[in-house]
Amino acid sequence: MATFPPLRMDLPRHLVGMNVTSPNVTSPSAAHQSLSFSSLPLSVQTWAVQMLAFHAFGLLFEALDHFHVLPSAKVRSLRKSQYMHLLPNVLRNQVFVLLPFMWVMEVLGLAFVGSLSPLRFMLNLPLMALGHELVQYIGHRYLLHAPNVFLMKLFRHSVHHSTRANSAISACYMSPVDFFIEIGCPYLLPLAAVGGGGGGAFFHFLVAGAGAVGGLYEHSGYDFATAFRPAFENLGEKPMSDSEKKAAYDALALDDGRGPLTRFVTNWLADFLDNRAHLEHHMRGYVSFSDGFGSPSILDTLLRTRWNLSERRRADVEREWARQHSQHQ
């Protein structure tokens, strides 16, 4: 009787380990793995973490407003909650502008790619802060607040200023073009400039989450530094001349019973939590274009546009507005 060699069932190498019992059925473990958070592009993961941080802290500030917690730190009063009114615009910008922009930057190999050594990690953090300030200052001052009547109307930056920075999530309440210039570019262009930030998650989660929380605080109407600095320095107090302010500080020093360590910690907290810059920007559009919470504030200082240097620019700004107004009549 003829004999036949045993039937061999060798599989191609790329199919080894796969469940081939039925070619049309995917194993539950494989399906679960394909839908896991870690299987998403890094840009999408980062966006999701940023949204979690933004809306969690946004709701926290909303709770502070609703239950009137820390009223002494609420320096920009809020007549009624604007949260639900602002939310649709905010979500539109975050989903249809920021998310595609982040994903495209990854697809093009400009961000969320590469390697990141511990040294590069530490260097990239201050470089990102400097890059963010540079891009935001240029776009915010020269495109959105030139003052240029045509550009301001075209980009509708007035939508953002209509909130008066007294509700935290108003940080992202703006026209789509304004959002692209003021939020997307200052975040993603510096990220590309430093080499993409690497392919690891922690650096991107840290940068995106910190940026979200900082923007919320700047627009919340709260200034937690009020608990650590003299009352005459707080927003809304009667302005004082240099001589009056020096006399007030001299009198304060005579009554200062704090020790050196307490004084150091108090002064550091007052500087770190200071939120006057961006609040003043929403009151007077010609000051503090990148100066704010967590910002190095280099350009606003060098170009004399910081909120506490702004009076020296008032006459120049008013002359420029008068010139453009006469041209458009």
UniProtKB/TrEMBL annotation:
The chain crosses the membrane at residues 91-114. InterPro entries: Fatty_acid_hydroxylase, Sterol_Desaturase_Related. One of its GO terms (molecular function) is iron ion binding. Residues 127-223 form the Fatty acid hydroxylase domain. It is found in: Membrane. The lineage of its organism: Eukaryota, Fungi, Dikarya, Basidiomycota, Agaricomycotina. It comes from Cutaneotrichosporon spelunceum. GO terms for biological process: lipid biosynthetic process. One of its GO terms (cellular component) is membrane. This is Fatty acid hydroxylase domain-containing protein. Keywords: Membrane, Transmembrane, Transmembrane helix. The keyword Membrane applies.
